[in-house]
Specification:
Largest sheet: 5 strands, mixed
CATH architecture of the largest domain: Up-down Bundle
Cofactor: Mg(2+)
Strand order of the largest sheet: 2-3-1-6-7
Pfam family, one: GGDEF
Order of helices and strands: HHHHHHHHHEHHEEHEEEHE
Radius of gyration: 30 Å
Protein name: diguanylate cyclase
Transmembrane segments: 6-29, 36-55, 61-82, 94-111, 117-140, 152-177, 189-210
CATH topology of the largest domain: Rhopdopsin 7-helix transmembrane proteins
Oligomer: single chain
Number of domains: 2
CATH class of the largest domain: Mainly Alpha
GO molecular function: diguanylate cyclase activity
């Protein structure tokens, strides 16, 4: 079966328009995904490239420079969309520099047309560079929990790179492959493969978007929206695992429960926006004291916070609680240019053979004692 370049361009444009419209409409619904808008733009650019090259196949300025340049821009957009989606800090200037180099080469090809062999090798080389760059970002710069969909998308780019490498071998050694089934297959599938790649890439990007949304929803379900800390449900789940691990190793585990003193009066006198600012400030102060990587810090509810510290001695937990209490008292919160003095009461419970619920109850008893004794102090439950 043989299709002329014009026919393939029309087929590619039709499929490209369908994919572009789908991604554009999806972007209108999922507004919080910037990569989606970039990929939609990339597919529109690919569609324009297919039309440009399909309307003129004689090596003109339109097909060589404009069409080739549009393909380079589409690759740059796909790469940046991947980087943004994976939150990898890739600067726009690097892909744009490669686009500029490619366009400059295409201008040279138009002004001084090389042999068909050289032209095919050049285009294949460009394609492999873009493919390798995107595979590197997808496989080595993606979060662990997104490796499945990134691996699928990377596989598409790997197959694309292998296709152009194989095509380059056939072009380099025409005497070995002339009129062979492989030569005829690659010639027929040269543009059909581009159309198929666009369809598979749209599938890969859609899967990546779905996985990102799923992960974000799971994170939101476990996170307090104001402070970014674990919420109560997530804390209980993680805390039970952490305490049980300490018990299995015979290590002590501590729970520190914080309560912001007179928080209701802050809301009443300053407003709820000020209260939110105070809560965020408190979290920043506690984090600034230097939390261990394995520690669990969470918002337990309202103005109450909890810190779970594995493998720590009672004296060390008590000293840390006192240091945190002093840091909070020493750093007023700022709201609209005014400072708000805040203090916290802390209840501490430490044990090596208690479960998480028992530790939390013991810390709660200690916190009640600290508040009853005048607030802005640390109380330790010796019975825990």
């Amino acid at each position: 079966m043989h299709f002329d370049l014009f026919t393939l361009g029309v087929i590619g444009a039709a499929i490209g328009i369908a994919i572009s419209i789908s991604f554009t409409l999806l972007g209108l619904v999922l507004r919080g995904l910037p990569a989606l808008r970039i990929w939609a733009t990339a597919f529109w650019v690919i569609t324009a490239a297919a039309l440009t090259q399909g309307l003129n196949e004689n090596g003109s300025l339109l097909s060589t420079v404009v069409g080739g340049g549009l393909i380079a821009v589409a690759n740059a957009l796909m790469l940046m969309g991947i980087a943004i989606h994976l939150r990898y800090p890739l600067r726009w200037r690097w892909p744009l520099a490669v686009v500029g180099l490619f366009v400059a080469c295409q201008v040279h090809v138009y002004l001084s047309p090389p042999t068909q062999t050289v032209s095919a090798l050049m285009f294949g080389g460009y394609s492999v560079v873009w493919d390798a760059w995107m595979v590197w970002v997808l496989m080595w710069r993606s979060p662990r929990d997104m490796r499945n969909t990134c691996g699928f998308t990377a596989l598409i780019f790997i197959i694309d790179a292998l296709f152009y490498l194989l095509r380059s071998v056939v072009v380099l050694f025409p005497q070995l492959f002339a009129h062979s089934p492989l030569d005829e297959l690659l010639t027929t599938w040269n543009y059909l493969f581009g159309i198929l790649s666009s369809f598979l890439l749209s599938t890969g990007f859609t899967l990546m978007l779905a996985e990102r949304l799923t992960l974000d929803l799971r994170r939101l379900a476990r996170t307090d929206g104001l402070t970014g800390l674990l919420n109560r449900n997530a804390l209980i789940e993680a805390g039970e695992r952490l305490v049980e691990a300490c018990r299995a190793r015979g290590q002590a585990c501590s729970v520190l429960m914080f309560d912001l003193d007179h928080f209701k009066s802050i809301n009443d006198n300053w407003g709820h926006a000020a209260g939110d600012a105070v809560l965020s400030h408190f979290v920043g102060v506690i984090r600034g004291t230097g939390l261990a990587r394995e520690a669990l810090f969470a918002r337990y509810g309202g103005e109450e916070f909890m810190l779970v510290l594995p493998a720590i001695a009672p004296a060390a937990a008590d000293a840390l609680a006192e240091r945190m209490r002093a840091a909070v008292a020493a750093e007023p919160a700022l709201f609209e240019g005014r400072s708000i003095d805040i203090t916290t009461s802390v209840g501490v419970a430490t044990a090596g053979d208690a479960n998480f619920e028992q530790l939390v109850n013991a810390a709660d008893v200690a916190l009640y004692r600290a508040k009853h004794q005048g607030r802005n102090q640390v109380a330790w439950n010796p019975a825990a």
